């Protein structure tokens, strides 16, 4: 790990040609911008040493995480700070100040028909060449600079899953693809949003012909759609967009309430038998669920509040 986590500041916004990485013409200038020396740069681009700069592990969801550490972490944080400020279109809701999975869902609130679909293995399929082209064609860097940035910003040829840069690069390297999809949707008078690998189109009429057009665009850019996760909703169904249920307003999914009730029942049954650490974990989990419900301006169910108060008393030694 890299000790204290470095923040990414998103307080400023600018067009891509105002980014400090725009038109970098030499490796000396690149080092200056990244806050490193020439020897540091040589170490970073040595492929045989890449494993020294990443902590790789499988998270609780079974996903392989490649987390940059040490010098690589500091450089990724610097690049992330520069890329995070580049303006992206309003239909992109991922990793933007003032946007979230909730704002992404809200964009489709009053649509009658809706289709959601995911890009398969999104980060893994954003490769060195795609990253290099972004730095060369969009940020207008010299060829050697663009190539080296593509090496620094990837792990074993792909966008690393645990890096701060990845949540910004996954938007930026695919701006042309997303813009093409947006224009197709706009022409059909549909709403279009992107949240990482999760894409949604909605409107009065959204059918398989519209979906197939989107698939063809995605395939032309070298990606594929995860067919098993594609969902179609009509006006008589409650759509789920980036985990949010679209009713008269944005709402929590029914399954979320069921899981919360099950957690509360488990706590109430085992509160006198479980160790402090486990009860603390469950308390934090329950608190997180309550905060999530409040984010959607919904009233937290009484059974959650009651169990939360019970846990607080138990953890404070009052019962």
TrEMBL record:
Pfam families associated with the record: RVT_1
Molecular function GO terms recorded: metal ion binding; RNA binding; RNA-directed DNA polymerase activity
Residues passing through the membrane, by range: none
Keyword flag Transferase: yes
Domain (Reverse transcriptase): residue spans on this chain: 1-246
Keywords in alphabetical order: Antiviral defense, Magnesium, Metal-binding, Nucleotidyltransferase, RNA-directed DNA polymerase, Transferase
GO biological process: defense response to virus
InterPro entries referenced in this protein's UniProt entry, alphabetically: DNA/RNA_pol_sf, Reverse_transcriptase_msDNA, RT_dom
Family statement: Belongs to the bacterial reverse transcriptase family.
Designated name of the protein: Reverse transcriptase domain-containing protein
Naturally occurring in which organism (per UniProt): Psychrobacter aquaticus CMS 56
């Amino acid at each position: 790990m890299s000790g204290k986590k470095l923040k990414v500041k998103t307080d400023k916004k600018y067009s891509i040609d105002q980014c400090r990485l725009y038109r970098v013409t030499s490796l000396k200038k690149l080092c200056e911008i990244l806050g490193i020396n020439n020897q540091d740069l040589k170490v970073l681009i040595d492929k045989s040493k890449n494993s020294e700069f990443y902590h790789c592990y499988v998270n609780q969801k079974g996903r392989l995480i490649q987390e940059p550490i040490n010098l690589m972490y500091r450089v990724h944080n610097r690049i992330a700070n520069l890329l995070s400020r580049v303006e992206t279109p309003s239909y992109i809701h991922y990793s933007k100040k003032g946007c979230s999975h909730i704002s992404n869902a809200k964009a489709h609130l009053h649509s009658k028909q809706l289709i959601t679909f995911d890009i398969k293995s999104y980060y893994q399929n954003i490769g060195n060449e795609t990253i290099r082209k972004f730095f060369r064609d969009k940020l207008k860097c010299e060829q050697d600079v663009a190539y080296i940035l593509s090496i620094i910003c990837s792990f074993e040829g792909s966008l690393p899953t645990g890096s701060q840069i990845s949540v910004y690069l996954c938007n930026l390297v695919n701006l042309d693809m997303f813009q093409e999809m947006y224009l197709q949707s706009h022409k059909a008078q549909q709403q279009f949003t992107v949240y990482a690998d999760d894409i949604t189109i909605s409107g009065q009429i959204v059918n398989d012909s519209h979906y197939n057009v989107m698939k063809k665009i995605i395939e032309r850019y070298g990606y594929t759609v995860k067919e098993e996760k594609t969902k179609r909703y009509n006006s008589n169904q409650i759509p789920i967009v980036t985990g949010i249920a679209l009713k008269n307003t944005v709402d929590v999914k029914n399954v979320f309430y069921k899981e919360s009730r099950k957690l509360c029942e488990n706590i109430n049954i085992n509160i006198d038998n479980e160790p402090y650490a486990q009860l603390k974990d469950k308390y934090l989990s329950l608190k997180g669920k309550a905060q999530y419900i409040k984010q959607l301006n919904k009233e937290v169910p009484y059974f959650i509040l009651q169990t939360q108060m019970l846990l607080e008393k138990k953890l404070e030694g009052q019962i």
